[in-house]
Amino acid sequence: MINKKKKYVGRLTLATAITSILFSGCGAAQKELAQTDRAFYEKISYQTVTVQSGSLTPQTTISLSAQGYTRFSYGATNTELTLEKVNVAVGDHVKKGDILVAFKSGEIQKKIEDYSGQISQNKLLAEHYRAIMKIDDTQDYSSDIAQLDKDTEVAQLYLDEAKEKLSRYQITASEDGTITAMDNSLLAGVFEPGSNLITEISGNGNYEADRPEGYDFNVGDIYTATASDIEFELKVKEVDDKKVVFEPVSDMSAVSDAQIFSMEVTRPAIENAVYVQKDAVHEKDGRYFVYTLDENGYRQAVWISAGDQVGDYRIITEGLKSGDEVVLQ
């Protein structure tokens, strides 16, 4: 409840203006007052709020990120390459060794075709010589066959070298992970050489968060986390004094390992708590106080003992009771 109380005060006597309100600690009904000065002229409207009591449930939001993830940036700078096919899109999960982007090279492809053709011809000719020798044992093509086999072996080495060279130009996944970014040229189906065409994030599948002070987590407990307005269930896997590790319960294929999750966690409800809006509580030299209004409408500071902050409220452990009015401003 918010109330407004207005007080118009004329000129004070000099004695009144320099008088400080002294502490009074006697009697349960009296409050300890902090020193506060009054100006010569006051014309102030104070906004007040009512101290309340009841049950409060502490709640906080924590952020989770993929645990131990590694970022891979892939590129291709050879200007002789042409784009053949982009096999992935942002958000796709990939396996180690998957070809993310396939390229062609006219020069290398011609070598592959030439060496492949030569190998096929050599094998066919060698088989032909063997067939003749089998039919007519007077014919001897052994040296020709040996030379063909040698030429085939050399051609195969060149073919393997060309294929290996072309494979090095393909962009392949270094580890299992998620594609998180792609150059606009690839998105448009065009290859523009560059060193950072595709980004992949790889992690172990778990998510980690800083452990908020005062909050308990138990291995096996299941929480709901949110990423991109989609809810997922995560289970507590490990807990220590500083970190909490969660493992997925839901299917996480719809999100990237690079996305940050948010999760609201609560503590057990605090029963019979006396509390007030947090903006009404002030701190000085490690002590807390609030402003109240005396019978004449003057603002006066009252020392209190403050507990936890719960949302927009501050728990009061001593110095106020339910129903008291304190100044919000």
Structure description:
There is one protein chain. Strand 19 (282-284) and strand 20 (287-293) form a beta hairpin. The strands form five sheets. Strands 2, 4, 18, 19, 20, 21 and 22 form a seven-stranded antiparallel beta sheet that branches. The protein has a six-stranded antiparallel beta barrel with strand order 5-13-16-15-14-17. Helix content is 20%, strand content 43%. Helix 2 (106-135) runs antiparallel to helix 3 (142-169). It is rod-shaped, with a radius of gyration of 39 Å. It contains four helices and 23 strands. By secondary structure, the chain is of the alpha+beta class.
Task: Give a brief outline of the structure.
This protein is of the alpha+beta class and 329 residues long. The chain is built from four helices and 23 strands.
Sheet bearing the most strands, described?
Answer: 7 strands, antiparallel
The SS-based structural class is: alpha+beta
Q: What is the number of beta strands?
A: 23
Order of helices and strands: EHEEEEEEEEHHEEHEEEEEEEEEEEE
Rg from alpha-carbon coordinates: 39 Å
**What general form does the structure show?**
rod-shaped
Query: Count of DSSP helices?
Result: 4
Share of residues in strands: 35-45%
Mean pLDDT: 84
Fraction of residues in helix: 10-25%
> What is the terminal separation in angstroms?
15 Å
Low-confidence stretches: 1-29
